[in-house]
Amino acid sequence: MAGMTPNNPPRRILSWADTPKTVIYTIMISITLIELVLQISDRGWIAGGELRGLAYKYGAFWSKLTDDWRPIYAAQPWTMFFTYAFLHGGLFHLIGNVVTLGSLGAIALQRMNQWKFLQLYLSGMLGGAVMFAALSDSAIPMIGASGAIFGLVGAWQYWEFANLRRRGLALTPFYRMMVNLVILNLLFWLMLQGALAWETHLGGFIAGWVWAWIFARE
């Protein structure tokens, strides 16, 4: 049959899940474009400089909405569990998350296709929001992709932990990394004068760890 000889093997059509890093680039571009639009608005070129405030008002995570605050629109108490991760507090906040997403995302994609990566990312995003809602009563909005990114950290550390145990090696490197993560969060919390949503980091980490334990291939 034509096209089936050993010298002319059939071509497999690549799916979206097979394309390297498409999901990471899509997330990076999405959150970057949103922040750039807000930066332009901050300079008064769009919506009279009020667009960032509106974006936070409608899309940030407000823990009080899980208590006694009235939402602006009916679905807000539910949509904010995901929309918060697309908003950032400025270029430095965005750049830090984008760089971290690129490096940790590359590690994760060595073990899974992009559909599973997206599941892991969303798990960290949701876990971070749930933990923030459970532990924080702050009236300040929570924003940023760090919950989802700490989901990647949690999965990565589960893989490292499982690998050490499987090989019968000491868990010292794993414990050292845990201590480093705690110290890093503490330092940023001090630098930001308590404005760091460590609850979101913790929730994302736990969600990523659990996801990797249940679903990820070893």
From TrEMBL:
UniProt-listed Gene3D superfamilies: Rhomboid-like (1.20.1540.10)
GO CC annotation: membrane
Aminoacyl-tRNA synthetase listed as a keyword: no
Localization per Swiss-Prot or TrEMBL: Membrane
Keyword Transmembrane on entry: yes
Alphabetical UniProt keywords: Hydrolase, Membrane, Transmembrane, Transmembrane helix
Spans through the membrane: 22-41, 81-106, 118-136, 142-162, 174-192, 198-216
Positions of the Peptidase S54 rhomboid domain: 78-217
MF term (GO), any: serine-type endopeptidase activity
Superkingdom to which the source organism belongs: Bacteria
InterPro entries, per the entry: Peptidase_S54_rhomboid_dom (IPR022764), Rhomboid-like_sf (IPR035952), Rhomboid_protease_S54 (IPR050925)
UniProt topology in membrane: Multi-pass membrane protein
Listed SUPFAM superfamilies: Rhomboid-like
Family affiliation: Belongs to the peptidase S54 family.
Protein name from the UniProt record: Peptidase S54 rhomboid domain-containing protein
The organism of origin for this protein: Paramylibacter kogurei
